[in-house]
Amino acid sequence: MNYISTRGYEGKFTSSEAIIRGIAPDGGLFVPETIPMLTKEDLEAMQTMQFYQLSAFVLSKFLTDFSEEELLEYTRQAYAEEKWGENPVPLVQMNEYNDREYILELWHGPTCAFKDVALQLLPHLMTASAKKTGTNKKICILTATSGDTGKAALEGFKDLPGTEIIVFYPTGGVSEAQKLQMVTTGGANTHVIAVNGCFDDAQTGVKKIFGDAELAATLESNDIMLSSANSINWGRLAPQIAYYVYSYVELIRKGKMDLTESFNIVVPTGNFGNILAAWFAKQMGIPVKKLICASNRNKVLCDFFSSGIYDRNREFFKTTSPSMDILISSNLERLLYEVADKDSVKVTEWMTQLNKDGKYTVDKGTLKTLQRLFVGGFADETGVSKTILEVYDRTDHVIDPHTAVGFNIYGRYHTRSGDDSKTVFVSTASPFKFAPAVMDSLRGAGYSDNKSIPDIIAELSEESGLQIPQSISELPSLEVRHKDVIEKEQMKDIVCNILL
């Protein structure tokens, strides 16, 4: 299978070339030339597979210059029991008296966030892709993060031979636990830098660096190339498709659905990569009825699915769900390319307008296509807090603020639509990563004020009965190794100082 650019670049690329490059030469995003279909026989075969086997099977449909044996070896290592426990991505029924709601827990990996599912695997795919493409250059993983991608990428690439990893995160735009996870990272090849601004400032700066022809030539002469661990990299996005296929297989395997039923998926959404992976799963043949795109107060996606107008020219809010504090959802470009019948001219015009004016408007046909599948909604801080308490009271499950955004939007959708289809809620992070916000929701606003983070985490463990993950419990004792804070205009200079 070949990969092409959303913006019409004439060349075609293998999956390994797409993974190594991260972004297309014309600034577009790589998409598969065709989307593979899962047959009835495929779905039957997956009934007996563990997650790592199913993941390799799904990936083999997209990464056709990798053998299934290679992929099995990579997924076996990436999802090893010592890193994840017995089941890396458990699908849990929320309440034994309600067979409609299920939660897909994606946070059992090393950094307690869903990004681990892809970023424990990406280093294997990246190093193998380098060999397949004959690349002998040092690879620099350049990434902007709104909280979870940074640590997951650092953990995946730490001390990986032939790589450097540079992570930019917004000052004040991540939780204290997320920040500590990043700035205490060891490894000789890791670099973590705070940027004064929001996530969009950091992400825009990274995109500019990728598009800098002069810098690319300089790096090339020094045998260095840039790649990305953000979901703009197909090697990051593709592994996420597998857990949506897995959730359907699990529902069938547990006898909760039959092959005639469809189900809903609820995804808390910022950069649009996670929900886009669910869309790809649907295109492969997984019977998804509705994709519920859940936003926080930074509701640019919610407004887009309602009006067809994408407008980032608005007030930016810092919320208790910081990984969703995003106004430029990069992966939406891939979806627009697909639903606009692969019209790269249209997509390029929209992206040019976004870059120039901060907004664009899609045509009525494109909007109608989107609205047939996607439901958009948003929740403010009060709604998120109430939802955390409501879900706990109703199901005994403690959820983090991002996951709560999803439950909040779904609750209103269910009341409005009367849709009683089985529904899978994507749980994107451990509640311990956002312990102050969670405890304030459970015990009352301001409860965690003037309390230390370790004390709040201990109280959350006692309240919920959940064991504190080691990667969280050890944070207070770790040395802070990364202390640089820069202005967004300095990002290119920092990259040059590190690499040259």
Question: What would you note in describing this structure?
Answer:
The protein has 500 residues and is of the alpha/beta class. It has helices spanning 15-21, 40-46, 51-62, 68-78, 81-84, 115-119, 122-132, 148-157, 176-183, 199-210, 213-221, 234-253, 273-283, 300-307, 332-339, 344-357, 364-373, 381-395, 401-417, 435-443, 453-464, 470-473, 491-499; strands at residues 3-5, 30-32, 91-95, 98-105, 138-144, 163-170, 190-196, 224-227, 263-268, 288-295, 309-311, 359-361, 374-378, 423-427, 485-487. Strands 3-4-14-9-10-13 form a six-stranded mixed sheet, with helices on both faces. The chain has a five-stranded parallel sheet with strand order 8-5-6-7-15, sandwiched between helices. It has a two-stranded antiparallel ribbon with strand order 1-2. β6 (163-170), α9 (176-183) and β7 form a beta-alpha-beta unit. α3 (51-62) packs across α4 (68-78). The protein starts with a strand and ends with a helix.
